[in-house]
Recover the amino acids of this structure.
């Protein structure tokens, strides 16, 4: 039985990863989910697995050295999959400090706790111990040549405080590999979409606003390009790296699905109109003239596009969900989970939204 410590498992990708692993590997793994439950962490995402004997939740902060060390002392952790982070670029522009604290210093605490628990006297590590650091393609910066892609060898050039903090944490992990032979992988994934994504990110924000007839804020000219991957394909990519990846290596994860933001907004509006029955009063609200071009994001990266050639060639991974079916599944999920949406968009989210979009 492999014991996997998942950090940030109550967030968007972490909760999808936990679902994927418990469904596909039941009986072979136990998951411990370490999460402090910030605004982005939501145990509702995991209510269907919360009573399982192979799943345990521990409320703790990755910056809290004693709490993290205790988890390693109380459990024989084989694998760490490290998702916990502050993840939203716009918030990092408003408040960079927390991004350094969580993403950089929190990662340092985890690396030290894992190393202290795992390293043998001769500096080696027992077989089967590994740390997978989940990162982003945003560390590579912005592509100006339309034919270019991010490769694992592309030099880091982060622009936002978010991507700078993720780049710093990637370098820390790499330094532990190089200095201590620490058994780690780094994965750099493109933009994810799917169920349980907090509606501050583009796709769920547009779905949520369209369903309530609110303006759909498009930054700048709407022509910035992101490379979208269905979240379960990301989970499968991480699992492939854990199964077959080479320790010390980094792997890009993405599915060659580049789209301009404005195209995404139109696809969402069209899909909502198609999926909503005529009898649903929300259908009336879904109108193209809700689209509102607003002041651009500061330092807005123009284009991200990832080459997943290495993970395909070495590990045989490729995405299974194309965008047309993934976006339908996602929108359908939001339509059937109104209560989840209502819970996460009440309270703090409202004040965030008013502050962030009131000034654009
Ligand atoms: P998210 O914001 O939805 O979830 C982050 C989770 O981390 C939350 O559950 C939160 O409570 C938890 N957390 C935050 N600070 C913590 C702390 N100090 N201690 C313990 N837990 C803490 O993020 P996400 O979109 O699921 O992203 C997960 C990871 O994947 C991040 O590392 C992010 O950089 C990376 N990533 C995200 C994307 C994307 O498109 N969302 C793409 C590539 C990589
Ligand atoms: P986002 O989902 O925040 O992901 P990231 O910035 O990490 O790529 O944004 C995706 C793209 O959508 C990005 O180019 C910014 C843009 N965007 C808008 O145009 N309007 C919005 O309200 C949001 C949140 C994002």
């Amino acid at each position: 039985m492999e014991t996997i410590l998942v950090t940030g498992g109550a967030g968007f990708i972490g909760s999808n990863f936990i679902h994927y692993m418990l469904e596909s590997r039941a009986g072979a793994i136990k998951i411990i989910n370490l999460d402090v439950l910030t605004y982005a962490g939501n145990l509702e995402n995991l209510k269907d697995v919360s009573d399982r004997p192979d799943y345990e939740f521990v409320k703790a902060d990755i910056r809290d050295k004693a709490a993290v060390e205790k988890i390693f002392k109380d459990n024989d952790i084989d694998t760490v999959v490290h998702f916990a982070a502050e993840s939203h670029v716009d918030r990092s522009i408003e408040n960079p400090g927390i991004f350094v604290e969580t993403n950089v210093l929190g990662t340092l605490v985890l690396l030290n706790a894992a190393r202290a628990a795992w390293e043998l006297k001769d500096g080696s590590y027992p077989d089967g111990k590994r740390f997978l650091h989940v990162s982003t393609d945003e560390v590579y910066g912005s592509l100006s040549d339309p034919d270019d892609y991010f490769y694992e060898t592309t030099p880091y050039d982060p622009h936002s405080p978010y991507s700078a903090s993720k780049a710093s944490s990637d370098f820390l992990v790499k330094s532990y590999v190089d200095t201590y032979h620490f058994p780690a992988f780094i994965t750099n994934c493109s933009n994810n979409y799917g169920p349980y994504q907090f509606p501050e990110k583009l796709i769920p924000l547009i779905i949520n606003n369209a369903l309530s007839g609110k303006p759909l804020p498009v930054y700048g000219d709407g022509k910035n390009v992101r490379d979208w991957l269905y979240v379960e394909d990301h989970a499968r990519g991480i699992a492939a790296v854990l199964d077959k990846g080479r320790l010390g290596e980094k792997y890009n994860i993405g599915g060659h699905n580049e789209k301009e933001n404005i195209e995404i907004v139109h696809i969402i509006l069209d899909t909502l109109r198609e999926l909503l029955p005529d009898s649903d009063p929300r259908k009336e609200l879904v109108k193209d003239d809700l689209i509102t071009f607003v002041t651009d994001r500061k330092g807005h990266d123009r284009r991200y596009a990832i080459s997943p050639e290495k993970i395909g060639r070495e590990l045989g991974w490729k995405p299974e969900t194309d965008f047309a079916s993934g976006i339908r599944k996602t929108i359908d999920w939001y339509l059937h989970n109104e209560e989840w949406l209502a819970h996460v968009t009440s309270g703090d989210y409202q004040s965030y939204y008013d502050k962030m979009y009131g000034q654009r």
